[in-house]
Each structure stands twice: as C-alpha cells, then as structure tokens.
UniProtKB/TrEMBL annotation, chains A, B:
<keyword id="KW-0560">Oxidoreductase</keyword>
<keyword id="KW-0285">Flavoprotein</keyword>
<dbReference type="InterPro" id="IPR016215">
    <property type="entry name" value="NTA_MOA"/>
</dbReference>
<dbReference type="InterPro" id="IPR051260">
    <property type="entry name" value="Diverse_substr_monoxygenases"/>
</dbReference>
<dbReference type="InterPro" id="IPR036661">
    <property type="entry name" value="Luciferase-like_sf"/>
</dbReference>
<keyword id="KW-0288">FMN</keyword>
<dbReference type="InterPro" id="IPR011251">
    <property type="entry name" value="Luciferase-like_dom"/>
</dbReference>
<feature type="domain" description="Luciferase-like">
    <location>
        <begin position="19"/>
        <end position="376"/>
    </location>
</feature>
<keyword id="KW-0503">Monooxygenase</keyword>
<comment type="similarity">
    <text>Belongs to the NtaA/SnaA/DszA monooxygenase family.</text>
</comment>
<dbReference type="Pfam" id="PF00296">
    <property type="entry name" value="Bac_luciferase"/>
</dbReference>
<protein>
    <submittedName>
        <fullName>LLM class flavin-dependent oxidoreductase</fullName>
    </submittedName>
</protein>
Length: 437, 437
C-alpha cells in the first residue's frame, strides 16, 4: 500500500462584501458584512467544500474610506457564535488582539465558542498593527517589538487559563450533591511582566482541550511567536520561492521550542479569479478592477504600508530602497518584493492593494488554478491555502464547485470530513492539561 | 373605550442548572449551564410565553463551591449570539462589567448582538461587586463609589459610540462606487476622567438605535446611574412595602435627569415554586431545599454578604446591628431587612441564600402566585417581574403554562408580541443619534 499522501488544509477568509475591495459591485455579489444570512451562506459553502476553517480578521477602528467590510462589520466572536449554530464541522477562527484586550476575557470567549461549536474554535492572535486602534483605547500604540513581547506572555496566559480545568471535573453526583470535583480545578496563579492572572475560568475544559491558535505575523518576533505557539499560520506571499523560504524559516525554528514542523499548517492567502477560459478569468478580474474606487485603494495601500503613499507619482517605479516604517503590515514586505521583482509602478501597487489587499491573486481556469496550488503544495511552499474569494457567494461557489473537485480527484484534499473538531481536521491530537500532568 | 390597561413586562433570569442552588438535582432538571440545547429550550419557552427578555448574569471568576452555574458557564455575549439564531422575538440581555472591560469592546459586542438578533440586545451594566474578579485582571478592586464613578463615564462612552453612525450611512451606490456616506459617520472624541475614546465603531447604527440598558444597582450611586441611563432595572426585594419604596425612590429621581418614570421598567426578581395545591408547592420547595449542599449555601451567603459568615451560630437571630461591608451585594440589604422583619436565624439566611440566592421566593398555586404578582403590580411596587425558575425547563414551563394564562386573562400581560425589537416590547421609542440631531 502506498504511503498515505499528504493533504492540503483549506481555510476561507471572510469579508462579507468580498475580499476584493470592490467585490460588492460584482453582479450578484453580497452587499454587506452586517448580514447574518450572507455569513450563513458562506458557512454552508465551506462545509459543502469540507473546508478546515472559516477565518475572520478584525479591526479595532472603523475605516469608512477603505474596504467596505472594514468599515461596517460584526464583532468576530459574536458572529462566529451565531454561525456555530448553523454549521456542524467547519472550524471557526476569529481574530482578537493581544494589545487591546484582557487575556481573561479572550480566554473565556474562545473557551465559550469552543463549547458552543462542539470543538471548532480558533483564536487568531494579533498584536494589532495599525495605530488607529490605540485612539479607541486611550493609549499610546506600543511599537512593534514591545507588542510582541506582550503577545508572548498574553498567549501563555490564555493557554494557561484553558488548562485550569481537567477533563472530568464536572461530576454531577446526585447521591452526594457534589457537582464539581475540586481536585480537578486549579488556579493558574500567573504573575509575569505584563499580566497577573489568578484563574480559573468559569468554564470547564473545552471539547478541543485547547482551542486552535492561528497567527499571521511575518516579522522575526512574529515568526518566533508562531513557531512556539501557533497551530495554523496565515502567510502573505506573492511568489513561490518567497513562500518556500518563509515556510522553511518557520518550520526550522520549531525544534528550538520543542516542536516538529508538522505541528503547524502554513496557509498562504490566495485570491482565486476563475473563468472557463484564461481570457474569461482575466476579463472578470479586469471588471472587478474597473469597479475600484481609487481613493479606497489608496487608503488600503497606505494602511498596508503604514504610511501615506498618495503623493508618489503613479507611473514611476517603486524605488528599490523604499524604507518600511514600523507600522507596516507583513503585506508591505511581500508587495514590495513583488514590485521589485516585476518592476511595478505605484499604480500597479494601488491595483494590487485594491484587488486582494496585497494578497496573491491567481487568475485562470480551474485546472490552471489547481495546477498552481499543487505546484506550491508539492514544492513545500505551504500546507494548504487560505482562500480569499473576491466576492461572495459566487466567487466562493466557483472555487468549491470547479477547483476543489480537481484537488480531490488528485488526492490532494479530503473527499469528506473524517473528524468533528477543527483539531481533528488539522490532524492534531487533543492535548492534556499541562496543569494536571 | 376604557383606557388601555397598564401591562407587566416579564424577563426570565437564566442559570442553566436552575436558579435554585440545587435545582439540577430536581427530577428531570437540566444538568448543565454549558449546554446550548438547554439554553435553546429556555429560549423556546420564553417565546411561547411572549416574554420581554432573557436575562443573563455573569461572574468574572469561577466559584466552584457555590452555585453550579456560577462555576461552569458560557461567556454571556457568545451564548446570546448563538441563541439569537434560534429565537425571533425575545430580548437578549447579557451582563458586562464596567470595571473589567474596555468601553470600545463592550459597545462593539452589544452593537453586534443587536444586529445579529434584529434589535433584541440589552446590556446589563454592572460594576462587578465581588473582589475576586480583580485577581483575574491584575488589579486592586476599586471600592464601591469609585466603581460607580467609572461606571457613569463608561456607560456614556458606550452610548456615545452607539451614536457615531447615523441611520442611512451605508448607501451602496453602484453608480458611483460610494459604499458609505462619510457625512453620516462621526467620531465620538470622548476625553474624560477615566477614558479617552475616539470612535467610531466599525459597526453601523443598530436596529434599536441604542441597545437596551439594564441595571441592578440598589445603592445611592447605583440608583442614580439607573435613573439617568437605565431602561430596565432588576430589583432585589423581599417585601412589597420595601419594593414600593425602592420603586418610588428610583422613579422620583428620574426628572432630575430629564426623564419620566415610565421610561424605566422595574422588575423585581421572583422565584416561583408552583403546585396544584399550596401543600404541593410547599413540598416541592422542601424537596429542593433538602438537596442543598450546606457548604454551597454558605459560600453563596458569604458572597452576597461580602464577608465570611460561616462562624455565626446557626440558631441565633441575625443581629439588628449587623454591619454591611462595602463588598456586599444589594441582596444583603434585602435579606437583612427580611431577617429583621421576620426574626430570622442564620440558618434561615442560609436557606434563603440556597433557595434563590437571596431573591424573593413565591410558593403556591398558580392563582395564588398570579394574585401576589398582581397585588405588587397594581400597588406600584414594580412594572413586571424577572422570573427565576428554580430549575429548567420544568420550573419555567410551569410558570408559562399555569401562571401566565391567568395574568393574560386578567389583561395584565400581552397575549402575543406586537413588535419585533426589545425596545418595542418595552414600549420605548427608537432614539435618533444624539450626534446627528
């Protein structure tokens, strides 16, 4: 019997009006990220496609001039709790900040979501790179490395709180009247540099033991945090060689933290634009691009770059020595690398930001797209993909109905779910509590 | 035509294992507060009974030795978001702390819940009276009046954030590509003594305009905060005269804040124990009391009183000069008043804490209970009740099937919903944003 083939993991990144900045203008596209029925439809498609997870970003400030789904949206945890009720298998990943929230509150909400969903919760731990959030919390935005120092401790506290209850602590003994076995509930008693948290949570050990940890950081501190604590990494890359290098860099640092490379699934963001012919796909992308409001694209690019770039001459090449500020996203690095590699102008950069907010766009027929994804996967550039449909639901339907069957036929993706929890989809064991070992 | 009669408002206070501390031991009772199907069943009963709202408390620390539903429960916002999906009319009220959360995060979550539920969200703003929460947030627990000073500003910031979007701000103009009208979104720019919050939220104006504000404080600062900002007050009272005095005291201070008494619905907590005969009801309560684990009841009483009372001789009368510490709940005042009025011993106090955590217990036939509720209502001791079934679902079924029809027959409660939002159930108009008037 041949060895069981390595299979991809797939997530879908959800912005209700589409990942393309003007996706809502595409004929038939969903019009709002504040519409539960849109999210529920996406949940149904994700489960029809046997996806590992639904992935929600977040922003702690409204940016009405940028992407419609950044301006008006639901809070991610409440939205996923609602979605948990109308889905049964797909993982539910939400973003919560390690800079502008309390570890006790974050730990509770994800523990609650894990119970409500029967073991499908995932926390995307971010340090909130934009400085605008600070103004909503009466704070000075900490600089990059300081945010990661806090994040390291924050993640440990959250995971420690998830460990305060052992399995089987709720005994409900009708004879004696004992409801909880106190020997199976311990405080955490964390006292660190940034946080002092006693615990336990008022929530018992969750179906997954520990909800899944997602991360998207690409800086050195970001990669180290991921290597030590992440289960899934959402990568921003535009090029296979670059993806391979990033993949190796992350996996090679894992043994330093006592972990194996297989314990993290690296999923680059990828916007599929699908046509029956290459021409049709190209026309579709051009139509989407024609819908872009230039001011929105400029705001998006400015946010990704961490600085106002509206003064640069549109038809000049992006200079090779362009300095990145501390407030830039990981996106900026990948976009600049692409610009230098391909000789892009600032106009090209605006278009790239407008299309997929700096993510990789793959435009072609279903077979061409499947070939590209397989090439990246077979060449260890990734462990799967975070799919960013340009608009919903059609753009996601197209991927699930046209590209996915090819991947399944090639044995690259599951034909059906074999487990119920996200941890099971990812092939990760359910951990025992570290406080009770 | 006679004037339209004044009608009661009804809430149901949910602890999944029952409001009685040993409710889970009652035959047929739900066994867990970490079971979505239990909550969904309660939601169905509440809507069958045309209740105004479901009311969830919270605790920011686990207290395994006290009430089972205080020890192991879901986080309230995620739980109500899940419940929003399987209910259509009943209001969804959750507790969130003004001491251990950020106003921006609280405002977002309730705005999100209001959208997800189509206008049924309510925020129970509490200052977190127990000091145990402080240990989970690395803080010194602020003393009572300082907590209320923070709460006053916190509530204003949250309501201000809800006002940052005007109705009609999301225009989605397919011709021009404009998604949001920037003239209809404003920052709050709050800079106060405790908080500095710019705004706006990344969530448009909600179905209710402003989610409903619930409060339960009974101290002078608590009553003032309620008189100024609350729509619904959850009162803790044991006696009609006491309820009348509290009711008057709250309503009479409202004009000071430019409001009318009718703008707040005062709902005392009330545990119904229902039998076909008075004897049967009494037996049911005795059976429930026989299930009480004395250690749990002592912990509950200690928490309510804000001090350890386990050393007091069980068969001695509660002394008239018993001093209440700053850390006591509003419960303590009502329980002590009852103890002095009725000559209760410390054993009686433990029983009272075990039964309904210090709330009023009404034991009798459906007609007796309906008579008592009507007496309180007609005599302006309240505007309705917050019903605390001793166990679920049976204890709630009994109220809805046996007591409610009597109230409906007497014209004291609605026969069906006439609106869709909680604000409509309460007879309150949808406010315009104060930032756009």
């Amino acid at each position: 019997m041949p060895p069981s083939p390595r299979q991809m993991h797939l997530g879908v990144f959800v912005l209700g009006t589409g990942n393309h900045i003007a996706g809502w203008r595409y004929p038939g596209a969903a019009q709002s990220f504040e519409d539960l029925s849109v999210i529920q439809e996406i949940g149904r498609i994700a489960e029809r496609g046997k996806f590992d997870l639904i992935f929600l970003g977040d922003n702690l400030a409204s940016e009405p001039g940028m992407h419609p789904s950044f301006a008006a949206r639901f809070e991610p945890l409440t939205m996923l709790a609602a979605l948990a009720v109308t889905t049964t298998h797909v993982g539910l990943g939400a973003t919560a900040s390690t800079t502008y929230a309390e570890p006790y509150n974050v730990a509770r909400m994800f523990a609650s979501l894990d119970h409500l969903s029967g073991g499908r919760a995932a926390w995307n731990a971010v340090t909130s790179s934009g400085g605008k959030a600070a103004e909503n919390f009466g704070r000075i935005h900490p600089e990059h490395d300081a945010r990661y120092e806090v994040a390291e401790e924050f993640v440990d506290v959250v995971r420690g709180l998830w460990d305060c209850w052992d399995d089987g602590a709720v005994v409900r003994n009708h004879e004696t009247g004992q409801y909880i076995d106190p020997a199976k509930v311990k405080p955490l008693n964390h006292a660190g540099k940034f946080f002092k948290v006693k615990g336990p949570l008022p929530t018992s050990r969750t179906p997954q033991g520990q909800p899944i940890i997602l991360q998207a950081g690409s800086s050195e501190p970001g990669l180290n945090l991921a290597a030590r604590t992440a289960d899934v990494v959402f990568a921003v890359v535009q090029d296979m060689a670059e993806a391979q290098a990033g993949y190796r860099s992350l996996k090679e640092r894992m043994p330093r933290f006592g972990r194996q490379g297989a314990e993290i699934a690296v999923l680059p963001g990828m916007m599929p634009v699908i046509g029956r012919t290459e021409r049709e796909a190209r026309d579709k992308l051009n139509l989407l691009q024609s819908f872009v409001n230039p001011a929105n694209a400029r705001s998006m690019l400015a946010s990704r770059m961490g600085m106002d770039v509206s003064g640069f001459p549109l038809d000049e090449l992006v200079p090779k020595d362009f300095p990145l500020p501390d407030t830039s996203h990981g996106f900026a690095k990948a976009m600049l690398a692409k610009a230098w590699r391909e000789g892009m102008t600032w106009r090209d950069m605006f278009n790239l930001a407008g299309a997929a907010r700096g993510h990789w766009v793959v435009c072609g027929t279903p077979v061409q797209i499947a070939d590209t994804l397989q090439e990246w996967f077979d060449n260890h550039a990734c462990d799967g993909f975070n799919v960013l449909p340009p608009y919903f639901p059609g753009g996601f339907d197209d991927f699930v109905d046209q590209v996915l069957p090819i991947l399944q036929e090639r044995g690259l993706f599951r034909a059906d779910y074999t487990g119920r929890t996200l941890r099971e989809h990812l092939g990760l064991p359910r951990p025992r509590s570290r406080l009770f070992q």
